[in-house]
Amino acid sequence: MKFETWVGRLLAGGALLAVASTAPAQNVVKLGMVGEFSGPFAQYGQQILGGMKAYMKLNGDTVAGKKIEIVQKDTTGPSPDVAKRLAQELVTRDNVDILVGFGLTPNALAVAPIATEGKKAMVIMNAATSIITTRSPYIVRVSMTLPQITQPMAIWAAKNGVKKVYSVVADYGPGLDAEKAFTEAFKKAGGEMVGSIHTPLQNPDFGPFIQRVKDAKPEAVFLFLPAGEQGIAFMKGYAERGLAQAGIKLIATGDITDDGVLEAMGEPTLGLITSFHYSAAHDSPENTAFKKAYAEVNGDKLRPNFMAAAGYDGAAMKGMKLVSPRGPIMIDPETRDVVQTVYIRKVEKTGGGLYNVEFDRFPDQKDPGKP
Ligand code: PHB
Hints:
Bound molecules: P-hydroxybenzoic acid
Order of helices and strands: HHEHEEHEHEEHEHEHEHEHEHHEEEE
Largest sheet: 9 strands, mixed
Mean pLDDT: 92
Helix content: 25-40%
């Protein structure tokens, strides 16, 4: 089948509906989930699965009369070889109809050829390096891309008087995408980059990097780190080494103020400005319903974050357009990547705790990383 036909059907008919109607005469639609369920990135799998369960709680667990069944596999972290083997098992042994999940870029990239060979739709629910969707015609991404969420931050910072920036990013696909997108947009808006550091993806020790930034005396640091524990460690070092007191602002993509860990990062985050596509504080009926369903199926210990919203949307995607818990989204039929509003937000203390409060927006953002 030509990929335009396949993707057209996938999108127009809805991922789940399309598969339900073509799957052999069985009474189930099987989703094979490749996710991170243990190790330092364990919250990725938990959030994405939690979001899909929230969708089923609100909309039921059948589609076209067939029951949705999720088969879960744990990559244990950024492990391309493991991810590839698990995806192969899901396709050949478990006979899944769709591959879903994918928190980390290296895992998504490793599985792309399996989707192509097995002719299985592959729904990316987080992994955000721009090129991922170009690696298989069977891939659709419902999450974000780093260039997409970064460019608005650069434009906003330049407009708001920041002129000299030091960039700190994780040393792999999304970090390199973020650095490139920020640098290009910031320079174009009249800003100057005064330094750049790439931090390791595994077990980073941020202390020495933060000191190097402090010594360079930039006006601000632009930061991308993968959501979760790394953000907690970075904010601790930033506070301990007194960068805020030295007048060095922090601007970042919203991965750093991940709703799932924001409370644990605490007061040092107050006033932090980030750009992102989802906030638990987003004020809409869709988000209220999503958060309620999420808490009902997953308990209220973990606040749903952007990965949970993408899990929800990946299960919900019944057409090209959708009002998501994050706001309006659509899939670009050319690139199979998501088009959405990117918000500028500030961490504030509201009645219920620390939240990313949206105060400015860049609507209809495509991935600027694509030609
Ligand atoms: C990725 O590996 O693509 C990734 C992981 C965590 C993020 C963003 C991107 O917060």
